[in-house]
């Protein structure tokens, strides 16, 4: 039997593929079996008797936000690695703490991540972590959508490579299609070329893409050029990763000579920009978003993991992209409010290879709908609702969230997670998580 | 009769003058006639029978945040000047719109500003605007604390100068001491030297300070050097403004040669850093916070007006200062979470000349207390509460706000403003506010 949901009398944010967003007022959105079936003036649509109803009066429906790069389970380490250099962040704090994580911990951290994201209107995320099967469980349980990449380092050996690929293949398409998967080599500086070649072959054979950190900052690119005479993006091309289709995390070290390479693969390449962590780690320059967009490459807004970003808040990521890109380009007129919203919706969707399924509210797309309340003192008067979304709204202005046609947050309350019980379980694990007296680490950082 | 208030069983954020902040758990705070009388382990304090009680269980008490520079009434223009250059922002959007403002509008905009700030835990703000008496009314009514500077341009003439000074003198000390005042010359590029000299004399005679925009960006400094052979900070020194005591807004164009001048007046000089607007206007460099702090100058966190900043959210300003200063200095280990909190509390208090009255929770200080809930999914687990305040918390995590010993926000609800009625009044004025068909402006921008 068809499941029908109607969101009534809301305003709708229309995000075109380019150009200004606009708002249509007093609209209904009819959803059938998880897909937007009809959208138009309130009361003028097809008969919706018996449909589950969400009253959208006074609220703005926006496409569910896409978090284009994160490590969900790292919520467990939120705030545990502050005011340190990139090297110390990896070698002294995060990679030693990760030794402590059990598969069960990863499930708990992932569930908290899903909860935080759903409550803030993020309906899809691209994840890169160990024990992705535990993350998939959390995705299925909580009702969010995700593309999961099982993290692989060459230091783990070839069997682990094959296993990570098998995990991805097994996860892809589960959860009624809400879970997709990518292969997850960590980075060109932790995965050797032979392993990248093998993973690219496996990805192509399985019809999957590759999610990888690359050219995270300029020093990595310079180091790669000095050691190997090739940029990290060049390595991705040479090993077949770009050919398979890649979601590249960060890319602050993408240099002009990389752009033709990326442009040649524009139909299957995305870059996730996560500015909060770049600023926090004192990086300069930032992701060259303007050049990437000019080259036709998809760019999405990401949070990276909460051990660096502290939140998984795409509102924050989106706002910081607008602010930092204006400054980086010394041009206050670019990265407009509409272009910024585009990155966090359609841009992220394209970057994840989901550009035809999510990212905008239109018939035929998955019903990933976020109802936002712009009525707070910090948003009013609303001269420009798009500006309000980018520069005034907070994650806490999210009222109701629908993913794949299912209401998962209603009036600010998450329906799918027992949050107090989850947090209590996590708190009990905190002392063990923070203990780095073992002196070990999952990997050494020396890009 | 003594009014007594007790906040029971909260955690308390201790913000020392330098070094790491710390959290004391299970504390009571006893307030008598607006002043913190006692603070210590719950249940061990003086008898508090009959005191008004606020249950702080599970909440963190932090000093009320200080917004070191804003233009409150510009909430009316929130989001009405996006994606434009600094020149167009002033000349095409904001200064033409300001022609439309009536004194009554300014009162409405100020009341909305006070409401927004109180709801987000800002208990004190430094304001710079026209019709400051209307803003004072809003401050008194809403229960917030403010230092108000009546804006003056030399284009308004000498009578307006004297009137602006008289307004400041009349306002200073009103509202039971919650209103203080400063003189408000707009900037060295809109107020001539003779007028700055006169205002500095008036300030010294009245025992008031001066709140002024200066060296807003490097191009202003370069322009001043080219036209006059002196930096804007040099102008402030030569005209006696620094001698009177100055709160300098922005200072992104403060150059190394200015530092000895500022250091010589360190006991009475503050600089307000408002990074969101600098990024939005594509400015580079930013306020040289490290050099200023090294010179002993007080630095506070500001939002500027909502026509540029879109919110009056000091949490956002504080976070952006940490992020942008780390990047600007290419040093991830400086502007620590504790140093950042300091700027938004004690730093702002000092910058406003209120360093002995507000900015920390200790006996003898005014009882400006904000209770924050770090229990949300976006803050947990809380490995480091100071990091949580800087990098995870949102304005919406503020639960209860006390100013001068009076509860003005309780459980997220503002007790002193009828917000729906206020917003309805403002909405009715929106078409008139946005109409710039008159072709006039309050001033022309050409620094």
From TrEMBL, chains A, B:
UniProt xrefs under InterPro entries: Amidohydro-rel, Metal-dep_hydrolase_composite, Metal_Hydrolase, MTA/SAH_deaminase
One matching Pfam family: Amidohydro_1
Stretches assigned to the Amidohydrolase-related domain: 61-408
Catalytic activity, EC: 3.5.4.28, 3.5.4.31
Source organism, top-level taxon: Bacteria
Keyword Hydrolase tagged: yes
UniProt-recorded name of the protein: 5-methylthioadenosine/S-adenosylhomocysteine deaminase
The organism's taxonomic lineage, starting at the top: Bacteria, Bacillati, Actinomycetota, Actinomycetes, Kitasatosporales
